[in-house]
Amino acid sequence: MKKNILIFVTMILFIFFIQTGNAADYEEAKIFFQKFVNAQSFEERKECGRKILIVAPESDLGYFSEGFLFYNEKKIDEAIVSYTKAIKINPKFTLAYSARGTSYYAKKMYENAIKDFLTVIELGSYDADLYFYLGVCYFNKGLNDVAIKYYTQSINIDPLAPLSYYNRGKVFSEIKLYEKAISDYSKAIKLDPKFAEAYCNRGAVYNKLGNYKKAIKDYDIAIKINPNLIEGYLNRGNNYVDIKKYDKAIKDYTKVIELNPKLEQIYFFRGLLYYESKKNKNALDDYNKAIELNPKEGSYYYKRGIVYYETESYNKALEDFKKALELNYCRAEVFYMIGNVYFYVLKDRTQAQKYWREGLKIDPNYKNIKNELEKYEK
């Protein structure tokens, strides 16, 4: 569920128009602009915008309309330029600030977006969406307390907007105020019983609290509402991993892959489960796919190396372990496994000792290496 990113402020009657060019043309542009504001469909707005551009192209309304058309063609930079021209002509044009703010938001230029949204509020508009997007901007900047403040103000203005509760719930979850998060997600669900993402996120909070039964129930509902909700299958799969129901987790991860075959981490996670289930060939296939999609992740090579080692493909295992180190996956367990290949397979005790000692530098308490060195030194 998403709000329309282009905010049309409710206090539109308080826009101050500044005439430029021919008076009759500008009056006609104002008529089209009012129709633009009251339009019930996107196509109507586009048509009004085009007409404004024809009759008063270099006016505040003309540049605003140009920005609107650019924005909806995904030409965000051009839209910002046009909205800025409109604002330069008419510094009290609230809708232009609002629209430019949404353009900055789309480019993740949150500081600029915040400045524009606050300007709209200073000019006298108290639209709930403005406070909502201020909350989103501050959340994306990592300022959770400020985000909560603005989401709460949005809710105070419009207490029937499920997305405001949902987003505030996300912040509460982020700062580990889980009961408050559950309360907000529940309110969002009450307002919109078909809000699949709210069920999914509430399920994730239940999972963190160890209430796996409630979590799975929420994921089931989310998936029933939206059978293509990747997060529903992924979260439920993670839940099944936590309670060691690996077959069910594999089934959910497989569904995630069906919905998005480019998520290399899911192949990796499923590979881990296949390995735990003693299905080495399946694990190897998944690790291969994960590496194909992301050849720069060292942990993938390490885990594939483990499968090669256990299936006695020692040269391939050694190659993968060293590749993991090359990619900065420098864990004690990697040095331990390289040492094992040298010691037990290649009979090279010097190299084995070298790698084991390197592993202890990373984790001086790594038991497996300490045990091997004790045996070696006897």
Folded structure, characterized:
With 378 residues, the chain is mainly alpha-helical. Among the domains are: 25-125, Serine Threonine Protein Phosphatase 5, Tetratricopeptide repeat; 194-260, Serine Threonine Protein Phosphatase 5, Tetratricopeptide repeat. It has 21 helices and no strands. It has helices at 23-38, 42-55, 60-72, 76-89, 94-106, 110-122, 128-140, 144-157, 162-174, 178-191, 196-208, 212-225, 230-242, 246-259, 264-276, 280-293, 298-310, 314-326, 332-345, 349-362, 367-377. Helix 12 (212-225) packs antiparallel against helix 13 (230-242) and helix 17 runs antiparallel to helix 18. The N and C termini lie far apart (65 Å).
The proportion of strand residues reads under 5%
Structural Rg: 29 Å
In helices, the fraction of residues equals: over 70%
CATH superfamily of the domain at 25-125: Tetratricopeptide repeat domain
Query: Could you report the average pLDDT, rounded to the nearest whole number?
Result: 92
Reported by name, the CATH topology of the domain at 25-125 is Serine Threonine Protein Phosphatase 5, Tetratricopeptide repeat
Which spans have pLDDT < 50 for at least 5 consecutive residues?
A: 7-19
Characterize the overall form.
elongated
The first-to-last residue Cα distance is 65 Å
Number of helices: 21
Q: Largest sheet at a glance?
A: none
Total number of strands: 0
Q: Label the CATH architecture of the domain at 25-125.
A: Alpha Horseshoe
Structural classification:
mainly alpha
CATH level-1 class of the domain at 25-125 = Mainly Alpha
Order of helices and strands: HHHHHHHHHHHHHHHHHHHHH
